[in-house]
Design a protein that fits this description.
The protein has 588 residues and is mainly alpha-helical. The protein folds into 4 domains: 135 residues, Beta-clip-like (Beta Complex); 157 residues, no CATH class; 181 residues, no CATH class; 53 residues, no CATH class. It contains 17 helices and 12 strands. The strands form 5 sheets. Strands 3-9-8 form a 3-stranded antiparallel beta sheet. The structure holds S-adenosylmethionine (SAM). InterPro entries: SET_dom, SET_dom_sf, SETD3_SETD6_MTase, Znf_MYND. Keywords: Metal-binding, Zinc, Zinc-finger. One of its GO terms (molecular function) is protein-lysine N-methyltransferase activity.
Length: 588
């Protein structure tokens, strides 16, 4: 992120002042802790933010009315191991916070019961799936927007945000908690334009064809449904009890508060280790999902990105600390790792794609998933679960869609996920080695060939490699190509969608080559599309062999300097395939 002077200046100013008030509030509680307990010698509270500053960034420059976003920057050089800031536990918003514990009992439990009853009712109508509540109750979100404890925290935050907005008219626990967290609530962005729940139809359209698209649609639908089917009535009833007899709950404001809370939790929540959470009132079962003021203003990147320079430590019963994991130069942004997640999760969770700072192109790693769906001639039909079962070598193990990917692209569509550039290199190098997801694709292709009940129509030749390549081509056809101009002219969510598509095209292109190599389909003509697989020099830019463009800097043939490759492997391959004869030294 870069520092910006653009955006709506009054909104920027408002948020800046709110963040300053939040800093004062955190300092007050830090000081109080130092006065009250003796532990401060070992774990001193880092009071003044004299080493870092909050600066408005350009993330919202596409829309001048968009909420101003901030990032943390080093005001002076910081040494590895230094503590940058500490957040006293009293300021950490969690279900186990003493001011919020009652709320769980009197309202959140019943809201969650309504949610569970609805899930179970829906499940009974679709008997072929397992009851989604079971996995959900085991702390797994199973493709849902939020897992159980996160959802509970989101509901609490909804009530706090609502109480804060209607001010003094709410009494009791909720009033006290909203007053305590007032400075924090005000420092949150007023809206979340970049989050997938708030993308416009036009922005969503650009995402079409990528692995994120169907996921995003599902998440957006789920948030709406949860509200309509489970939470609205319970929260409204609870609030009605808290208000003065003549006050009415404002349903529109309540729904807005819910959506704001969902976005806050989804993009800013921080998990603290259950065993370590040692506030005096906490029991072993208490969840540790938290919102940590100021700490949640840290922008992030992929786990192993060299830009990440801090981590978070929890000192139970004392505070949460941000510590430098490397030296940070004056003026550098302070960046936290958002964890081992794929670029597609970055898009659906945080609304941006991590990019390499040198090229501005997406960073690819083994986690990035791409879905491969069969061309229309190989359709998935009702009842195909039975056939998937028959594909596993272990007859006791049922091969399910969830074994293939975390992201079903569309309900009822077969798919596979493909990641890891390392796997791609291995597939190209060895006829016999296939990662499990490619094996599943292979099995799917074989299965399509062998089925004789007429569910699918497969044209000749019956060859799994060509079917897999057709699946890849089908996906590529759904995502139009992207040129650099398109990327540089786009901003905000449009840019995010374009980068996401660019990333998936790149991965598919690499895999296309690896698979054509393994199945020896070079130069073959696709039975379904009539196009040739992998023309050796089909593209102007990118590696002459595999055509990948941005996974690394391209190197030219040292002899003729006319042909470019991504690495030694492709160069050797091309040499054998005919470049040896064509190559003329530059000087001759
Ligand atoms: C935990 S918050 C970070 C603080 C946030 N910038 C703010 O103003 O409060 C996460 C959100 O910040 C933005 N963000 C974080 N890291 C980013 C990055 N490297 N590039 C672009 N946006 C980023 C995304 O909108 C994301 O959803």
């Amino acid at each position: 992120m870069t520092v910006s002077s653009s955006g709506n200046s009054s909104l920027v100013e408002e948020r800046r002042r709110a963040i300053e008030r939040c800093i004062d509030w955190v300092e007050t509680y830090g000081r109080q802790r130092m006065e009250e307990d003796g532990s401060h010698h070992d774990y001193p509270h880092v009071l003044k933010l004299d080493r870092i500053e909050f600066v408005t960034t350009t993330s919202s420059d596409s829309d001048k009315n968009a909420a101003p976003m901030v990032g943390l920057f080093a005001k002076e050089s910081i040494r590895k191991g230094d503590t940058l800031v500490t957040i006293p536990e009293a300021c950490v918003l969690s279900e186990s916070h003493p001011l919020l514990m009652d709320l769980a009992r009197v309202c959140i439990d019943s809201a969650m019961k309504a949610f569970r009853d609805n899930l179970t009712t829906q499940w009974k109508q679709k008997s072929n799936t397992r009851n989604p509540w079971n996995s959900f109750a085991n702390e797994q979100s199973q493709g849902r927007v939020l897992c159980l404890d996160e959802l509970r925290l989101a509901l609490q935050l909804t009530l706090l945000v609502y109480a804060h907005r209607v001010k003094a008219s709410i009494g009791g626990t909720l009033g006290d908690a909203a007053t305590h967290f007032k400075s924090y609530l005000e420092a949150l962005p007023p809206s979340y334009e970049s989050l997938i729940f708030n993308w416009t139809d036009e922005e969503m359209e650009l995402l079409k064809g990528t692995a994120c698209h169907a996921v995003a649609l599902r998440l957006r639908r789920e948030v709406e449904e949860n509200w309509e089917q489970s939470f609205a009535s319970v929260l409204e009833e609870y609030l009605q009890q808290q208000l003065q007899p003549n006050d009415k709950v404002d349903s529109t404001l309540l729904k807005e508060s819910y959506f704001h809370a969902i976005c806050s939790i989804y993009s800013r929540m921080h998990s603290l280790d259950a065993a370590n959470f040692a506030s005096t009132t906490v029991t072993a079962e208490t969840n540790t999902r938290t919102l940590c003021p100021l700490l949640d203003m840290l922008n992030g990147d992929k786990e192993y990105s060299p830009r990440c320079n801090v981590h978070v430590l929890h000192y139970p019963g004392i505070h949460v600390a941000v510590q430098a994991t490397r030296d940070i130069a004056k003026g550098d942004e302070v960046i936290f790792s958002y964890g081992q997640i794929s670029s597609q999760v970055f898009v659906t969770k945080f609304g941006f794609v991590p990019v390499a700072s040198t090229t501005g192109k997406p960073l690819i790693d083994g986690l990035d998933v791409v879905h491969v769906v069969p061309p229309p001639k190989l359709v998935w039909e009702e009842g195909d679960e039975r056939r998937w079962k028959s594909l596993t070598s272990d007859k006791n193990k049922v091969l399910e869609r969830r074994h293939l990917t975390e992201f079903p692209p569309e309900d009822g569509t077969p798919f596979a996920f493909m990641g890891s550039p390392i796997d791609m290199a291995k597939v190209r190098g060895s006829e016999s080695w296939r990662p499990v997801y490619l094996n599943n694709l292979h099995l799917y292709a074989l299965f399509s060939l062998s089925n004789d009940d007429g569910a699918e129509v497969v044209v000749e030749p019956f060859e799994p490699g060509s079917i897999i390549l057709d699946m890849i081509d089908y996906r590529l056809d759904q995502m139009p190509t992207i040129d650099d101009d398109l990327v540089s002219n786009a901003s905000g969510n449009k840019k995010t969608a374009i980068l996401c598509r660019m990333l998936e095209r790149e991965i598919l292109t690499m895999w296309r080559h690896a698979i054509a190599k393994q199945y020896e389909c070079y130069g073959e003509t696709s039975p379904t599309t009539g196009k040739k697989y992998l023309p050796l020099r089909g593209q102007k830019e990118g590696c002459a062999v595999c055509q990948t463009a941005f996974s690394g800097p391209l190197k030219s043939c040292t002899r003729c300097k006319a042909v470019f490759y991504c690495g030694r492997g492709c160069q050797k391959e091309d040499w054998k395939a005919g470049h040896k004869e064509a190559c003329k030294p530059v000087s001759s």
